């Protein structure tokens, strides 16, 4: 019903914002990835939205990009994952990281997000396998290109690098690099 809001940003109370649209104030729940990129109070804002009507509430969720909104919609289709948990996932890891974790079937990366237990993480991996990458068209670097790159990524994560650092260093590697050479090159890149 409500697909987009454009108005003036009146309040920012994580994870909620208040947007004034011609005299009507809409309370909108947003993931932290959107929240951190919001303009200052009193500035114009435009959010893509997802409207949920329940018996006891009408809830509006806002997103900065179409990819965030589409990922949110795919997440809430998973049984046992509601809007609050979907926002937590989008706040806890970027879309690229989420797509990569699902493609590589990595339970450990999903469990790091607050509120996501092992069983929920396994259900997400099972139900979203092959769906999320297609749903989030235009997400760069979401798919790992080879087994060697998967091994390199696992090695970097085991060494304590964050998902984001490991993914960035992986993108800089040649496509046909071997595991040992790839790890060396990635560590050199991360040391800079």
UniProtKB/TrEMBL annotation:
Residues 1-64 are annotated as: Domain I. Signal peptide: none annotated. Its main location: cytoplasm. Residues 73-92, 108-127 form the Helix-hairpin-helix DNA-binding motif class domain. The keyword DNA repair applies. The keyword DNA-binding applies. Has three domains with a flexible linker between the domains II and III and assumes an 'L' shape. Domain III is highly mobile and contacts RuvB. HAMAP family: DNA_HJ_migration_RuvA (MF_00031). Belongs to the RuvA family. This is Holliday junction branch migration complex subunit RuvA. It comes from Comamonas avium. The lineage of its organism: Bacteria, Pseudomonadati, Pseudomonadota, Betaproteobacteria, Burkholderiales.
């Amino acid at each position: 019903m409500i697909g987009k809001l454009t108005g003036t940003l009146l309040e920012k109370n994580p994870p909620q914002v208040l947007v004034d649209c011609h005299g009507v104030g809409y309370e909108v729940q947003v993931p932290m990835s959107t929240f951190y990129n919001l303009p200052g109070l009193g500035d114009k804002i435009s959010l893509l939205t997802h409207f949920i009507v329940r018996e006891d509430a009408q809830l509006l969720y806002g997103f900065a990009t179409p990819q965030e909104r589409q990922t949110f919609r795919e997440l809430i289709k998973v049984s046992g994952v509601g809007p609050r948990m979907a926002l937590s996932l989008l706040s806890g890891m970027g879309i690229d990281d989420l797509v990569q974790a699902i493609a590589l079937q990595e339970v450990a990366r999903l469990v790091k997000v607050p509120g996501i237990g092992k069983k929920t993480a396994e259900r997400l991996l099972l139900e979203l396998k092959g769906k999320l990458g297609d749903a989030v068209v235009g997400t760069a670097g979401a798919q790992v290109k080879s087994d060697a790159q998967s091994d390199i990524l696992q090695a970097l994560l085991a060494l304590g690098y964050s998902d984001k650092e490991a993914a960035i260093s992986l993108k800089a590697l040649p496509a046909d690099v071997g595991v040992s050479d790839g790890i060396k090159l990635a560590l050199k890149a991360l040391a800079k």
